[in-house]
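Aim 2, interim progress. The first record below pairs a target sequence with its structure tokens.
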Amino acid sequence: MHRGDNPQPGASIAAAIRQAWPDAFIVGLVYNAFESGVYAAGGPDVCHAMPYPTAGLGPYLTRLAEVRAATPFDWFIPTLDAEIAMLAGASEELAELGIGVRLPDPAVLARCGKAQLPVLAEHCEVATPATAVARDVGEALEHAEAAGYPVFLKGPFYDAVLVHNPAGLAAAGAAILADWGPPLLVQEPLLGTEFNLMGLGDGKGGLLGSCALRKLIVSDKGKGNGSVVVRDLRLDEITRRVMAATHWSGPFELEFIRDQRDDCYRLIEINPRFPAWVGFPAQLGANFPAAWVEWMLQRPVRPLPQPAPGRFFLRHQIEVSGDMGQISALLDALPNSTNHDLTSNSISA
């Protein structure tokens, strides 16, 4: 639910669902009492604190069952890569809890992970940066020495650090391993323009909709703080090949760099979820979260319209307000506490 300088998708998903169904009852799940989307206008009706996925599937499902017993809900939209990696094989357990979810098959998720992306890209005849997989910092140093500095060092879920020498790689590698564990990925840096494509895979090799953006403003964390809608048949063809190869079911985001050396799109990541900018096309008539809900209701889902090229978004700062009682209730419900009080989203924004 975070909406700061490195936003998470949850708040935008809630806003898009509110756009389609103003009276929808939305439950927010948070890991931090200071996630600003909790207190933003149009946010969730109630929020619950959750254990981090690193706690394991058992504690996560136990807490999810407690949340559903306290504030019943029908469907669950995971929004973070680490959640999806943990839950991908737990569809039956979630169904036993009465929770509907749309998750990629674990084998498909593994094929689309950062470590396996070069293999999938080769199968789909899609270009991707040269990437080496390392189990530890020592192996990463060997790969970087062979490739030549600078290189990007990436974690299995998050973080991408441009390092220029062995000392920088060792420091970045230790930090990434501490946060996310192995493997480390050593990837060639590319010069070019960054693009993102969001889609909703139908699980049969096709698409329920897609929207592509070119980044205009990139933050120091590599996030698109400003982007414009584009249409390029080459992006559509790459997406078609990936969908045909994976039969992806549910939301996804493809990240590209258009290499300035040869004007070729190189696929750098596949994210198994809605991106943080999912609320932008909803404002233009392409409401992906609403289509997801219709799909879960087993209603016919018409292909989503593609927003017109040239429409853009810019992220900007606002202040949200709330009551300290809300934060206290969430803090009490975070791990190492037995108090699972709720916090209502009654705010002035």
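The second target in this work package is listed in the same format:
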Amino acid sequence: MTTVDIRSAPHIKAENGVVKIMRHVVWSLLPVCAFYIYQYGISALASLVVVTLACLAAESYFVRQGQQSGNLGDWSATITGLLLALTLPPGFPLWMGVIAGVVAIALGKAIFGGIGHNLFNPALVGRAFVQAAFPVAIAAYTPSFLPGRFTEFIPSTLTLPFMAPTSVVAWLQAQQIDGLSGATPLARWKFEGVVAEGMDLLTSLSGHMAVGPSPLLILLCGAYLAARRFMDWRIPVAVLGSAAALAAVLYAFDTQHYPSPFFMLFSGGLVLGAVYMATDMVTSPVTPKGMWLYGALIGVLTVIIRYSGGLPEGVMYAILIGNASTPLLERITQPVAFGTAVTKREKNK
């Protein structure tokens, strides 16, 4: 007697499961993290390790409490920790980094039910929280490639809880390093009118610049994910394309007041946000048209916030607003089922 096993759809499943995709995302982030450590030394390494461990510990706790789905083996908490640490200053106090990691999991994932249910990118939820809670520390960047970065911590890294972090400028002066500050290229442009060199921004190889991971390296790692179909290329292209288009229009209107599109794309965290955060499969649209609209919204908002906002950076807020608009974008871009349009026309007759 033959037994027929009847199961519900889908009957043909793709090879790329959640764990496999997340694992490859982590692998693609390793070169970015390695370069970040090369830029800032043991303080960057400590930040990456401590923030990621905080995310993993919070994930484990909430899963055991039954407040969220998932497990440590799905790599999602690891991605959250790495991305969150990359958005923080390299000398960000470690105890504040722990708070950022716990909040990212608690308010970014657990409160919604865990992996696959969150409305906002968890790493950006943690970053937004510490942005509001510790505004001075979050703005204190350190110049890259400083001597002794592999043998000593940036003083603010080991600041005790509720103690004032050491001033970056004062620390540099104490080391007799003149002419350097903790201002990022975006901050220097916005508040001082100074525009950094193009290739220095793209590669992040110029010494003594307060910059994040190399945008060129991030683009290469993102190209790997897109080539393996672990990431949809439409979103980063839409984000970067729309930001460049708006920046080009403004630059053509007034070259003295507005920086070039190249500067706008590579001077801050736009590339990291476009490649690794805006593309979060849970918080971004699944329809092709929705992806284009979502990416364009983020790119345009980033430029507007940078020009008009009180802070020099606007990627975080733009992506969070894009996350909030995802349900609406999916609704208005949902493809029409075959035969539905004809049926509606017949009913209207």
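Residues 52 and 81 are 4 Å apart (CA to CA). This observation will shape the mutagenesis plan for the next reporting period.
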